[in-house]
Specification:
The chain is of the alpha+beta class. It has helices at 16-26, 39-45, 101-109, and strands spanning 9-12, 29-38, 50-58, 65-73, 93-97, 114-115, 120-122, 126-132, 138-144. It starts with 8 loop residues before the first strand and ends with a strand.
C-alpha cells in the first residue's frame, strides 16, 4: 500500500466564525460543516465523550484542505504559548502559494492576522512572509516572481 495524498490539516480553534472568515478571505472555499459527538468520536481521537463543530475548507484548486474544529466537550486546552516562536518543536505553519502578496497581507490584517516579522524576498524566485493569526497559528504566504 502506498500513500495516496495528504487529506487535510486540523486546526483547533476557539472562534469558529472568525477562523472560517480568515480562511475564506485567503481564498479557501467552505466545503461543508457538521457537528460530531458521542463516545465513537472520543474512541477515534482518545478523548472520551466528545462534541465538536467541524468546518472543512478547500483550496481553489481542490487539492488542499484545512479542517477547523471547535470543541465544546471536552473543552480545548492550550498546549503551548499562543505566540510560540517559529522554531518551537511541532507543526509551526501552513504555507500557501498566493498571488498579490501585499493585498493578501492587507486583507488578512483586517481579520486580526499580523506579520511575524516582514515580507522578504528570496533571490528572484519568491516574496514570502509569515503571519500569526488571532488563534495563534502561523500562515506562511509565498508569491512566486516572474
Amino acid at each position: 500500500m502506498t500513500l495516496r495524498r495528504m487529506d487535510n490539516v486540523l486546526i483547533v480553534v476557539e472562534d469558529m466564525e472568525a477562523a472560517k472568515a480568515l480562511f475564506r478571505e485567503l481564498g479557501m472555499e467552505l466545503e461543508g460543516e457538521t457537528q460530531v459527538e458521542g463516545p465513537w468520536v472520543g474512541d477515534v481521537i482518545g478523548l472520551g465523550d466528545v462534541r465538536a463543530d467541524i468546518a472543512m475548507l478547500r483550496t481553489p484548486d481542490g487539492h488542499g484542505r484545512v479542517e477547523l474544529t471547535k470543541f465544546h466537550r471536552p473543552e480545548a486546552v492550550r498546549a503551548e504559548p499562543r505566540d510560540a516562536p517559529t522554531n518551537a518543536l511541532g507543526i509551526r505553519r501552513i504555507m500557501f502559494a498566493v498571488e498579490g502578496l501585499d493585498d493578501v497581507v492587507a486583507r488578512l490584517r483586517r481579520h486580526g492576522a499580523e506579520l511575524v516579522n516582514e515580507i522578504a524576498q528570496y533571490e528572484d524566485h519568491y516574496r514570502l512572509c509569515f503571519m500569526r493569526t488571532p488563534e495563534g497559528f502561523i500562515l506562511g504566504l509565498a508569491e512566486q516572481l516572474g
